[in-house]
Amino acid sequence: RGVADTTLKAVAERADVSRGTILHHFGSGDGLLGAVLDQVVESLDLPDERIYEGLAGRDARIRAFVDAIVVFNERSVSWWTMFEAEMQRPELQKREAHYWSVLGQLQAKALGPRLAADPLANAALLSVIHPATVGTFLWSFERAGVGKEDVRPILGDLAVDAVRRVAGRRRGTGGLS
Prior knowledge:
By secondary structure, the chain is an all-alpha fold.
């Protein structure tokens, strides 16, 4: 059984092809899953370095990064729900590794060379864009009557402030204020 306890037989019946046809084209259930995931990821339109075009300065890049990731997270809620439920599957783990690689490259560009090497600056930025954080912010601000479009700049400002507060600090000194 595969994702959501689906069988290759059920997929073949739904597609009106034989199980052998699926195995011929994809090699295995994991091969089929990989092809489906590639299409899903492509349809989600993962942000790329174009989000930084025309921007000068680290703060502007951080805000653009946060904005792009918040929009991406909103588009991909159902994807992440499935992903979390089936994370032990090798094909999903490969796709997650790709996502984190792309995210890491965008985050490094947002922070710039010096801060990209700072683990605390990276942690501060990642904590602001994490889907759980974004979801809580959107929910809280929407309850207060603030729309999603107005929350994204607030998150961007929060990320810039968080990075500034921790950048260059030493861990374990209690100096993170």
